[in-house]
Queue: 4 jobs
Job 1
Amino acid sequence: MLAGVTLSLLRQALAQAAIPQRSIPVRLDAIGAYRAAFALNSTGIQDIAAIDGHVFGGDARFGAWLRALLAASPWEPF
């Protein structure tokens, strides 16, 4: 994980929305416990379909919510 501008903006938006957050390592043998995964970069937030053969069912509603939070974030402070 690289902590870039997009992650910083999203973390800021989550904090302003009073949404708790944490960063933890996720082992490959534990990804089955997750229904969705996302990648963040300068183009925004993308759904990850699979990691090493594990296919995620996805969570379109949560992804849309994250994208809306990011879209509402001001880019000027950076």
Job 2
Amino acid sequence: MNLMLLFPEDFVSDTRARVEGRRLQEIRRIGRDELRIGVVNGRVGTAKVVNGELEVHLDADPPPPLPLTLVLALPRPKVLNRVIASATSMGIKRIFLINAWRVEKSYWKSPKLEHLREPAILGLEQARDTVMPQIELRRFFRPFVEDELPSLAANTLALVAHPTAADACPRDVQQPVTLAIGPEGGFIAEEIASLERIGFRPVSIGARILRVETAVAALVGRLL
């Protein structure tokens, strides 16, 4: 834990907070009287342990968000938490989990979808960030792509990762990006065509088929 995230309900006064559970165990484990802290959606700073409470001093802003909106075909439940934590740690603040032909219907019944806040918190703690990402679910591909995505991607570089795309993924982009990533193996041809019709350009980072969590990190690192 590189930063301990505090929430409004933790505060017993303007500058004093009390934690329990996993965070209290972490304080006991590291055995230090001072630690890095941040307030959710607020500033970061330090806290001293005084009589079992945290004396909080906030003196800096969190790192800037990444100018990228991630549109991601819903991953397998067993990797979903890792993907959310990783994307959050990179500074992505808007994530859409969408359906696709290669997404198993059972994925949408996973209880993990009701607990995406937990991996997002882990990602913030890893990156010393405080601003929670906005994560939205879209179970129907076509209505989302045709009705919502054009306005979401307006005034951004709209890209869709696809293993067989002719164009290479650009590097060091100096503008906001909307990035769509499909399931392992990519979106099917009809889905790619739907995205192209609204202005998305298929791009590739090579012939290898990567796991979703690897593809997200590789693409975002290359783009921004």
Job 3
Amino acid sequence: MRKILTVLAALASLSLTNCGYNAIQSEDEQIKSNWSEVVNQYQRRADLVPNLVNSVKGFAQQEKDVLLGVTNARAKVGSIQATPEVLNDPAAFQKFQAAQGELSSALSRLLVVTENYPQLKSDALFKDLMSQLEGTENRITVARNRYIKAVQDYNVTIRSFPSNLTAMMFGYKEKPNFSVANEKEISTAPKVDFNPAPAPSK
């Protein structure tokens, strides 16, 4: 009897392997890992916002609307719980993406404003913050790209035969991904030119 159970267990294990169960598990875990890195990098950016706003405020208090826009966008980002459960809820994922996109836009508007303040652009603290922000945006792009690839692989697996049967049996569904809309704009790191423009030739 024990031999029969051992054989059945071996057959069940082989069946799960061939039907894509193990691949689904592996890819699902990879998505969670990549998602954690996306969230970490977005949080790093959010943590820079208060110091960046205060730095700009010191030189450009009159830019209240722009500063308030960045602060509000950052607050909205902070109100969203970016847990792994978000990955199984397209509506929640869209809300997260929209909030991050709003913060990206607000930061872009802030950087445009700073062009009007040469003293701010030459401030050491501001330069350091901008360097950190640009580095963080680059890391966000890398993390997002890894997440996008992992989700693509997973979604293909659960749609392909015979792993699609396994996915249906165990309730695995397609996961939402970052939309193509504004992807280029969102994933482009902000840049600030600290060098003054050359004077026009006479």
Job 4
Amino acid sequence: MKSSPKVEVTGVTSAATVKKESSVSITWKHLAPLLVAIAIALIPAPAGLAQHAWYFFAIFAGVIVGLMFEPLPGGAIGLIGVTVVTLLAPWVLYGPADLAKPGFNPTNAALTWALSGFSNSTVWLIFGAFMFALGYEKTGLGRRIALLLVKAMGRKTLTLGYAVTLADTLLAPFTPSNTARSGGTIYPVIKNLPPLYDSKPNDPSKRRIGSYIMWVALASTCVTSTLFLTGLAPNLLAKELVRKTVNVELQWGDWFAAAAVPGILLLILVPLLAYWLYPPEVTEGSAVTEWAGKEIGKLGGLTSREITLAVLVVIALGLWIFAGNYVNATTAALVVICLMMVLNVVTWDDVTKNSAVWNTLAWFATLVALADGLTRVGFVKWFAESVAGQLTGVSPSVAVLTLLLINFFGHYLFASITAHVTAMIPVLLAVGSTIPGVNIHALALGLCLQLGIMGIITPYATGPSPVYYGSGYLPAADYWRLGAIFGLIFFAVFLVIGVPWMLFIL
């Protein structure tokens, strides 16, 4: 074997092993977004829509396909999208009227547009909420909460289901990634429970208790993702798109008030419905509580960092609920993050090494800009007017029901709630705003409150879905069947109870 070559850096010779870089593997997932964008761009613009708006939509569609297939991380896809638009701005972002303005510089204007998402307060609120989740992880408070509930309520399988649901509910207001919350905190705890009753994955014994626990965990995190504005990152993106599209501001307290009645009802029903529709064979035992007790013993006593974090998240929640008119929600989150670092709950090193949060920041900042671009070029207005023409003569109630049905069950076509929000929410809102008599505030809330619960319908519908689908306790046939059943139940409760309640409080 040949010796490693010498590499000289600023006059200093050092030995370094030069590794041959692996070849880049280009798959159909990499090519699909590009092919979709080109195919749409080659089609003549529809009547009534400017050509540059059609080109922008082609790029936007390519980004959505990229978010669905994820050949690259979401942040990279969004950055590529806004960069392509910026480079082609004179042809895709601005029409002849803009370009004819004296002194107008499309290059500078496009760059300002591309970076606008990074100055968006909602994007930074998402960042802040992810920092709270980091605190839960670093201090171990999230795991302790889950174990304490399992120990207290784990003797019966049904109450164990409620313990899992309650643990997710307590973590949800401060963990906007349901993948981190359920897949990263709840799942690592509950995956240890089925083997205690000889319930094994990918084995007939999975139905003893494992299948029930896994389904309850998934279903409950879908509900908590709807219950809290900060329980799901795409909720915050939807909030911003609602503001930009129809000028409706959704506050944390307003969101919770609207979601509380149907959301809390579903949280109460989920463990019981799963117990009836997907019954476990083991209904009680002491093994779970004994195991949880041992794990709590390993954690030791409550640490000062855990106590500090608990106090800080309560402060943040109080500011979000009660001080919205005095302190911006994003400012409140940033204040608490600063206190977390000052009080050593997390360190700046923890923050800089958290690649997930920086990916999310880039992802949502670029998506906010791209969604704004659809409105800027006139595509959303054109599409809304075209669809509204098909709803001429339809009553406002029927129109709203139609839009809610499209939003919820249209999610079968998406493998990402973020992609769904970016593609669907502005368009459906714009359609609703053109129909006389539609309460646009109620429609905006209704569309947004579906985002969490729609995650139940498929094995790819939301972040934690692949985690539980891949656990070995939820076979494909069971998953699709239960997803359809629970999806219908969730939608029915939302429609029959949630919508009237929302209209009552608005």
